[in-house]
Amino acid sequence: MSSYRLGSITLAEIQPEDLEQLREWRNSPDIRAMMCDQSKISVEQQRSWYESLASSGATHFVARYKSVPIGYVNLKSISEPAVYEAGLYTGDARYRGTVVSFLMALAQIDFAFEQLSAQKLVATVKSENIAAIRFNETLGYQKQREAEGMWHMTLSADAYQVARAKLAGFIR
User: Fold this and answer.
1) Are strands 120-126 and 83-90 parallel, antiparallel or unpaired?
2) For residue 43, what pLDDT is reported?
3) Alpha-carbon gap, residue 150 to 73, rounded angstroms
4) Where are the alpha helices (DSSP H) in 28-169?
5) Number of domains composing the chain
């Protein structure tokens, strides 16, 4: 099983026993509202999605804080070499907007640059999701363009290192 650890955060490959928790989080109104596809996910859809992961060319993790599942992280290789689309959400509402969410994102980005040898990450964020835009900017992402109600943001390794240095005191 593949995993990656940064301090008290572990990104662990999704297992069948994680599926219902992920589905519950994904179907919660506050998370669904910020998704491009806002439909509710059925048990069958979740199972089908899980079965397709091996051939998806993407990395999907459950994020755990001190061994407790708190969120979801993914990285998907896109058309350009060494460019990955990054996505995540903090499913456990107790940790949204906290340093734990930043640690989860730092683990995701570290994994992308260190383990996948990414040159750049891209993220697509709903224009109305001001908190996520600010969160990404704190991590070093830069807005590139706004289209159809979405901000397209990019993160280079250099911009990330500058942002990460500012956040270094939070990593334990």
Assistant:
1) parallel
2) 93
3) 20
4) 29-32, 43-52, 99-114, 130-138, 157-167
5) 1
